[in-house]
Specification:
alpha+beta, 4-stranded antiparallel β-sheet, about 15% strand, about 190 residues
Length: about 190
Amino acid sequence: MMPRTNLLRCTRGVTIVEFALIAPMLLFVLCAAIEMGHLIFARQMLEGALIEAARAATASMETGENDRATIMRKSVADTMKLFPAAAGKSITVTTTVFADFASVTPEIYTDANKNGKYDQGESFVDRNKNGKWDPSTPKTGVMGGAGDVVSYTVTYPKAVLFQMVGKAIGYGDGTEPLSATTVVRNEALRRNS
């Protein structure tokens, strides 16, 4: 046995104790960096998948609306195979159909009374010069007809890679909900001559 005075001055084993204290934080930071990188990559892949699926959906106007919606969902799912979906959750695709691009976004206004909606008398940018404020005006339909403008929003429930990181950044249920939106115009129907 070492005398007590020698034991207090002994530095053998200090490195392993320091490593044991620092290792959990280093491991967490490493896992968080991997998780964030994977999340950014998944988001970029989702945006690309949505644009590609929307392009395919707008070009196949001969196919019915429900079939085009199914084809689009399958196209996004096939592209996102690298990123596992959270258990029990599925991809959702939301569509909104408009007559033209001008109808997609409402005219910009100054919300003077801060109630979150346009009220008579508030100033606005009159894009179409008709003298009145025009809201966003969606049409009915799932995927729209020929020449319609369609806004597609896809939500993908990506599973987190590391549960400890997911809980720390607010995804305690193990799901990182990714979403992407694109707006495209449906192609006109082809006429056989």
